[in-house]
Amino acid sequence: xxxxxxxxxxxxxxxxxxxxxxxxxxxxxxxxxxxxxxxxxxxxxxxxxxxxxxxxxxxxxxxxxxxxxxxxxxxxxxxxxxxxxxxxxxxxxxx
Length: 95
Fold this sequence. Notes:
- The chain is an alpha+beta fold.
- The chain has three helices and five strands.
- It has helices spanning 6-17, 75-84, 88-92; strands at 27-30, 37-43, 47-54, 59-62, 68-72.
- It has a five-stranded antiparallel sheet, covered by helices on one side.
- Strand 1 and strand 2 form a beta hairpin.
């Protein structure tokens, strides 16, 4: 795994700012200038955090317990893949 560059963080910010207000993903956060992981948030009754990381060939997002949910070569492609996964909302709904 690698670190996210400042330009990748800017791209993440741009992508999430372009999402509609009612989109399943509510925000993102990272710690440091070149973090190894970015957290993608969504909410229902409670906040949920999904780790986004870099792989040798692109990007991967996992569920809360670390199971990969989607992989893609680019961040826009990853967003499209995540949006098309049937039942993605069920992965993060409150039990």
